[in-house]
Each structure stands twice: as C-alpha cells, then as structure tokens.
Amino acid sequence: MIVTMPRLFKIxxxxxxxxxxxxxxxxxxxxxxxxxxxxxxxxSSVGAVVQEVGxxxxxxxxxxxxxxxxASVMKLVTTYAALELLGPAxxxxxxxxxxxxxxxxxxxxxxxxNYESFWMLLRxxxxxxxxxxxxxxxxDRSYFGPVPDGRIDDDTFxxxxxxxxxxxxxxKSLRFxxxxxxxxxxxxxxxxxxxxxxxxxxxLSQGNCIEGRAFRELIGASFQSKPPRAAFTGAYPxxxxxxxxxxxxxxxxxxxxxxxxxxxxxxxxxWVGSVREGVASPNAKLVYVHESEPLAExxxxxxxxxxxxxxxxxxxxxxxQTAGAPARPENAFHSIKQLLVAKGIKAPELMIENGSxxxxxxxxxxxxxxxxxxxxxxSPVMPEFVSSLPVVAAxxxxxxxxxxxxxxxxAHIKSxxxxxxxxxxxxxxxxHGRRHLVVMLINHPRASSEGQxxxxxxxxxxxxxxxxxxxAKAGPQRRP
Length: 480
Known about the structure:
Elements: H1 5-26, H2 30-39, E1 46-52, E2 60-62, H3 74-86, E3 93-99, E4 102-106, H4 115-127, E5 132-133, E6 137-140, E7 174-180, E8 185-190, E9 197-200, E10 203-205, H5 212-218, E11 221-224, E12 229-232, E13 235-237, E14 243-247, H6 252-266, E15 270-271, E16 275-277, E17 285-291, H7 295-304, H8 308-323, H9 329-342, H10 366-378, H11 382-387, E18 411-418, E19 421-429, E20 435-443, H12 447-450, H13 452-464, H14 470-474
Parallel strand pairs: 4-6, 5-15, 6-16, 9-12, 10-13
Antiparallel strand pairs: 1-2, 1-20, 3-4, 3-17, 7-8, 7-14, 11-12, 18-19, 19-20
Helix pairs in contact: 2-13, 3-7, 3-8, 3-9, 3-10, 8-9
C-alpha cells in the first residue's frame, strides 16, 4: 500500500496524540507532586489512578500496576465481593439449643454480636421461659477453622488485634469511660463484668489533650487478663473532657462467661455451671435463632469506621459460605479471585491474608483497586457499596479531613493507614458534576507521618475538575 505524505502526517498526528495522552496520564498532578516533595516522599513510592466514570482512559495513571500494601483500602475488595457473593440482605445466625441441662450457643461469625444484640439474645431466651441454666454453657465455634494470630503489633489489648471468632461477642472488648470533674476523674467500664478490678489513681493535670498511644502512656494505663485488671495511675488533662478507651482484656471464653453471668442475673435467671467449648448433640432442641443486621448495614460499619475485626469476620464468612465450614482464609481468597476474574479483573499481584488490610502481607495495585471501584459502580449492589464509604468532612474516618474545602461532602472515600503505608480510594463528584474514581497508594517510611497532605491534594485536584483524556474526548478514530 502506498502511503501519501498527507496520510503519513495524519498517522503521525494520531500517534502523537495517543502518546501525549498516555504520557499525560502517567504524570501526577502538580499539587500532589509538590506535597510529596514537601513530605520527602519520591513519586516512585506512589501508585495512583484517576478516571472519570464511563471514560475510556484515566486522566492519571502513575505506577498503576505496582504491587503495594493498600492498608485498609483492601476492605473495599472484601466488602464488594461480599455484597456480590452473599447479597445485601444476607444475615448471620446465632443459635441457642437446650442439650439436656446445658445451654449451647452456636455462632456463625456474626461481625456485630455486640452488647445490645447479646442482651437481646439472652432476653429472648428468658421470654421463651428459660430461667435456670442447670448445666454448662457450651460455646460452639466450629463454623470457623483455626485462625492464624493476626496481631499487627505487640499491643495485645488493643481491639484491632482481636482474632476472628465464630462466636465473637461484643468484639471481646470493654469500654472505659473517663469523666473528669473539678477535683477528680471518675472511671467506669461497660460492660461492668464480674471480677473486673479497676484501679483509678488518676490526677487532673493542665495542658493539652493528646490522642492514641501517647494518651494511654500519659494516663499510665496498664492491663492484665488473669485476673482481669485495669489500672490508671498517671495524669489526666482536664482539657480532654470526657473520653473513652476500648480494651480487649479477656480471653474469648472467659468474656462470654462473664457476660452471661452479669446479664442473666440482671434478668432474674440463675446459672451455676461452667463454660466450655463443644457442639450440640443430635438430640439438642433448638430454642431460639438470633439474626444479625443485614450485610448492607454491616458493610457500612466496616468501611465507615474501618473496623478490622468485622472485616476479618466477613472474610471468613465468605470462605464458609462459598466453600463450606469450617471457614479457612485461603478459601475466601479463592472465591474473591474467581469473582474478579468473572468481572474481567485479572489482578495477578493481589494477595489477601485476612481481608481487612491490617496486614504486612496484603498487596494490591492501584489499577486493581480502580478496577474494583469500576466494577462496583456498574453492579446492582452499587448503592449499598458506595453509601458504605466515608463522606469527606462529614462522617467515619474522613470526618475531620478537608474541612471547609470544596471537596467536602462531594466524595465517598475509604482511607488506609499503617506504618509505612497511607492510601485513599473511592469516588469524587467534581465541581462540574462529573464523577471520578480515585485511587492513591503510598508506601514509604514517611507515608504514615507525612503522606496525608499529598492524598488530600489529590482529592482537592480531582474535585477542581481534571481535563478529560484526549482519546476519550475524540471518540473512535477511522483507520487511515
């Protein structure tokens, strides 16, 4: 075929336009680059994708295929897969049997069998005529198989280090509330379990309030499990006002036993037996079935507040529901990979350990997370999925981010934070009324301490309205 000069120039122009489009997409926006420079984080430590929903090409695609630790952004993969595979109306069941004189509680991994729900379960048993538990309390946890220790650090008593449990009651946690007055600080625990010792030697002090580990060190917080004891022997800044501290103090079996002793006695019932693990016999009588909130509500709690324990419970539930009990983590990973392949997402780099992102092993690329967001937007479960994400400057983990900025209230964004990792992913409605999916992952020693400004700069830039990619605007090209 003879190619004339005008035709040759046309081919060159089209090629140049496509090359320019791809090159432009590879560049991070200038405000983001400036924030990274200020933070001392090189662009090579960042993976990012920005793409208008429905567009053919991204407006930003920077190191998009790199395998990175996504931190809690991994919860988007877990919750999307769960909504697709289980359905938004899925509920967990906790069953109560009478087996001779024993009361058997059989769990199925309810992520939110909290204090109120467990009270309702026991109250329903009382309403069905059960008053005296003459035998043992038998806990059936067989729905989940053995779970590796998933602690991310050596802070044993932090609730985020609680392991999954098919019969996890109230996250195995106590909530200590601190109430300062003019002269002293009152401390109480909820639930106030029998046998718990609280040592309160706090002294009011001046100065600003601080958060996190520094606050616990300031108030001299120390804990032990056997016997259960919490001691607070330091200073409490009056400016802190009322504060709460959640602690996982008990072993799971002892925690359920203490909860039953307290609540059952309050309801006028009696129990003199012991607590042990086991299963119901074939002759056991089913007395009551407690149902959880629907999955759509559970997913909101997981993503809005980045609840790691609930995400891990959900991950194992996926395993049990798709491959049968007892649940094993590798079966959940297999089910998620199958779903993604069916959606056209290969994700060769994807590695999921527990589904929460609270892991040193989990890996994903910005491109894979973006593909999940794209698939979710086209899915029937889109309303439940998107509404589960925190709204910037309004609620959840994004409540205090970008206050007063244009993007405030215009973006649903899941954030992630680990040592050496920070991330965001979700959807932004820009000032022109166009919606974009946004992913930005930072893996660097300075990411956790200095990376937030760059992530916020990305959200602000997207809200201001990046130009649509040239290839997407031009539409299909005729072959020369």
